[in-house]
Amino acid sequence: MKNKEISIYIHIPFCERKCDYCAFVSFCASKNVQDEYVNFLVKEIEDFKTDAVVKTIYFGGGTPSVLSEENLQKIFDALNRNYKFKKNVEITIEVNPNSLSEEKLKFYKGLGINRLSIGVQSLNDETLKKIGRLHNKEMAINLVKKASLYFDNISADLILGLENEKDVYKYAEILIDLGVKHISAYMLEVHKNTPIFDKVKNKTFLPLDDEEVANEYKKLVEFLKSKDFNQYEISNFALKGYESKHNLNYWTFGDYIGFGVSAHSYISGKRFANADNLKDYYKKIVIQDENNFQTEIEERLFLGLRCESGVDLKILKKLGYDITKNENYEKFKKENIIFEKNDKIFLNKENYLVSDYIISHLLPDD
Question: Which CATH number among 3.40.228, 3.30.450, 1.10.10, 2.60.40 corresponds to the domain 293-360?
């Protein structure tokens, strides 16, 4: 990978408490467990060799902000010893309002972290309590205020579809007024084996129905547009220059290496992932994905058409798929659902809400 660029993802699986809707690999852990994990993680970082220049680093979780300063310093020391960073490297850490102090913000700044992703989710205290969050509206607002003193590049997560959550755009308005430059707005997903699944099943939690979610999404999109936030992916909006470089690298099939339990990697067209439990992760069990053109074609369509980068027709042809011969292709073009430009195809943003349906009709036959 000489002279290439690479992104780094670091998975921190620890939480103060797992949220009711969360299906990621995350859990509560003692200091000893966290120390052991970080020591193993540092060794994994040191063992990976590359000549590529690091353009983005992303600490995800879990809740990375629960890590002690000592453990986070260990990780940064390993990164600095082993890799070359691009001059304008983007370094993001996910944080929660209940696990971040002003002292930690100063510490993060000193490490070189230059982007915060804050898990706000809602600014309704009752809703936050119902979904198992440990913060309230006041804590979220205070954190954004403090963070803006040290960081210019701040992103906030919101969830669409929560019970009684109408006019979510008003939360975005509050956050933007406080200095947030990026909004990620995700649809609530109810996964099996999560507390919220049982609550929905027992009707003790009633998410919005599909039509209500669609209305909330449209209102949010229109509001953010009025604030000059560009919708550069179906769930992501940013002022110019504040798009997530790390996520853009994923969506455009750049190389990335993942460190930590359950972390995924994509290097030179090959995908692999670490085991999704600590026992197997410590055994260095890695799951290799078979090179499968069908899978890559599907991923390129799903990722490319869900963001404004589009899908390169030439790459699809190299993979053996001439999408223009798909019976739905010309139909969708005539209906202005998709359009072509500079040998790429794009999905009109008005159709983002039904993107899965459209893309499923553009896939090659198995």
Answer: 1.10.10
